Amino acid sequence: MKILVTGGMGFIGTNFLKYMLDKYPDYKFVCLDNLSVEDSRKNLKDFNEYRNFKFIKDDITNENSIDKIFETEKFDIVINFAAEVAVDYSIENPNIFLKTNVLGTAILMNACLKYNVLRFHQISTDEVYGDLQIDSTIQYDESAQLKPSNPYAASKASADLLVLSYYRTYGLNVTISRSTNNYGPHQSFRALIPLTIKNCIQNKKIPIFGKGDNIRDWVYVLDHVKAIDLILHHGKIGHIYNICGKSKKNNLYVVNKILKLMNKDQNLISFVEDRPGHDVMYSINSNKIENELNWKRKYSFDDGIKETIKWYINKF
Ligand SMILES: NC(=O)c1ccc[n+]([C@@H]2O[C@H](COP(=O)([O-])OP(=O)(O)OC[C@H]3O[C@@H](n4cnc5c(N)ncnc54)[C@H](O)[C@@H]3O)[C@@H](O)[C@H]2O)c1
Fold this sequence. Notes:
By secondary structure, this protein is an alpha/beta fold. It has helices at residues 11-23, 38-44, 63-73, 87-92, 94-114, 151-170, 192-201, 221-234, 251-261, 287-293, 301-315, and strands at residues 2-6, 28-33, 53-57, 77-80, 119-125, 174-179, 181-183, 206-209, 215-220, 240-243, 248-250, 269-272. It has a domain at 2-185 and 218-247: NAD(P)-binding Rossmann-like Domain (Rossmann fold, 3-Layer(aba) Sandwich). It has 11 helices and 12 strands. The strands form 3 sheets. Strands 3-2-1-4-5-6-10 form a 7-stranded parallel sheet, with helices on both faces. Strands 7-9-11 form a 3-stranded mixed sheet. It binds nicotinamide-adenine-dinucleotide (NAD). Residues 6-7, 9-13, 33-37, 40, 59-61, 81-85, 100, 104, 123, 125, 156, 179, 181-182, 188 line the site of nicotinamide-adenine-dinucleotide. Nicotinamide-adenine-dinucleotide is lined by residues 6-7, 9-13, 33-37, 40, 59-61, 81-85, 100, 104, 123, 125, 156, 179, 181-182, 188.
């Protein structure tokens, strides 16, 4: 089995590849990443020891070289993690999000069709469903309407629709997973949890948007990675699977939790101007993957955040 993992040197891709390389020594993994993110260049160093791993530096929007790579490598499965992911950057510069997240996905799927790839899996996000008010008790399932509210989320929703259209129109064997906010090892310091841990270590101010009352549902990255493995091996073709952490917390709670665990004072917190159109709360359920594929999350937020802090302290 030969698997292409695009964007595999990013946060979730790195955790996925490490898990899969250890679990499936007989599979071959190729990671294609343009290393546009500094942290991804650092992650690459962790893969020297693996025999069944190959790295290709390229861009998923580079149609000619993607075609040649597929022709040469003959992949069985393609998993697309590659994406522009920073919501703030998508507000300043939406075009690059359309190029990578939508066109890039189409280019990969065209190559899958041309070279008879058996399966295409798209990594998506709960942000495609849009946000809810803080007091809402709704939990979206996979059939909910897509209502993205920023260019990043809209580009991911567009890609999801395109993936489903390739299933219906061309019969490409596709699956999609939509997860909530991930946290854990190898995440970029741009993200809330690693930035908070780093600033605690360095006794620097920790910026929080608005009043810190925006709510996200946090899933530990290893629980997410195991869910993707299950979908690849047992998921139904043409289906979408939500993956949630059942750990809804507002940003202020998350930062205070880290401050407490790291014995730091609350005066490190600095409230900054909110981002335009900041989504209030995302809420999905993952009943489908739990009932159909028997996925169980292992980490509570309390356990996952302790593991995460430990990992960053060791790295520093
Ligand atoms: N981080 C989260 O909480 C979260 C939650 C739900 C879904 N997702 C999705 O998971 C995927 C991975 O997210 P992440 O948090 O690991 O992001 P990340 O930025 O850490 O990783 C993305 C990787 O893709 C690479 N990349 C970007 N553009 C590329 C291109 N044009 N060609 C080739 N490689 C390219 C980057 O170099 C990087 O290594 C994304 O599709 C994202 O939408 C993330």
